[in-house]
Amino acid sequence: MFGLLFIHSNSQAQLSQYNSSIFFNKIQFNPSQAGILNHARVNLTVKTPLDNSQPGLSSEYNVTGDMPISETAAIGVTFQQQKSGILKSGHFGFAYAYGMKIKENLNLRLGIGAGLKNKRVTADINSAGIIGDEGDPALFAYNNSTPVFNSKLSFSLYTKSFEIQGVLPDATSKIQRNTNESLLDQEAGQFAVAYTKEIKNGGFLPDNSVVKVHAGFLKYKQTGSIISAGLLFTANHFISASCVYNSQGIISAWLNIPLEDKLNISFYYSTGGVYSRSIYGGAGVAELHFSYSFKKSKHEEK
What we know:
mainly beta
C-alpha cells in the first residue's frame, strides 16, 4: 500500500480535501491508480463539519470503484457531491489506467480521466438558513448553465517501497470553462512522493510494523502552492495511525481499523487553518471512510 497526499478542489483551495485519498482512495484524484491492487474495490467517504452552530457549512460524500480488466489495464468510476451554503456541486468521472513493468521491481502506470461537473443553487435557499430571494433571475440563470467537461492525465511510478505520482488536473480548462467559475481558483498540478519501510525486527517497535513517510505538492493558478507532509505507522499489519500537516496550517489525524480481510473503516479528524474556520466552522472536520475489496480472502487462498 503506497501513500498519496493530494488536496483537491474543483474550484477553490481547501474546499474538497479528502484525507482518505492519502492511502485508500487514490483513484479519486489520480486515474493511474485504478486497478493497482489487482482486484476490484469500492470506497465510500462522508465528510462533515463538527460545528453545528451555523447553517450552510460544507458537507460532502464521495463514491469510487475500480477494477482490472486485463493484466495491464484497469477502469474506474468516481462520483462526488458537495453542499456548501446554497450551492450544490456534483462530479462524475471515468478513469482508465495502463500499467507496464520497466524493471523487475519498477512499475509505471499511466492514467487518463474524464468527467462532468455541475453546480446548482438550492431551490429553497431560505430552508438552508440563508436569507435571499428565491425568484432572483441570477439563480435561474445559474441553475440553467450546462455541465462542464473536464479531463486529467496522470502517472504512478513505484517499487515495493517507493512511489512517485503526478497529475495534470482539468487538462481541457483552456478549451472549455464555465463562465461562473472564471474568477475562481483552479488547480495547475499535483505531485506526491511516498517511502515505505517495513520493520520485521524493530526492537521497541512491534514485529512486522510499517513506517511510511509521504509528502504532497499542489499548485494553484492564483493562490500559489500547498505543501503537505505526514507520517504513517502500522502495527503488525493491523491498526494504522497517521498524522498529516500542510502549509495552510491544517493538521489531520487518522486511525484505520480493518474489520476483516476485505473491509476497512477509517476515521479522520482535521483542524486548524482556513480549512476549518471559514468553510467547515471552528470545531474541525470529521471524515469517515469505508473500503471493501473484492479479493480472495486468506481462507480462500489456502
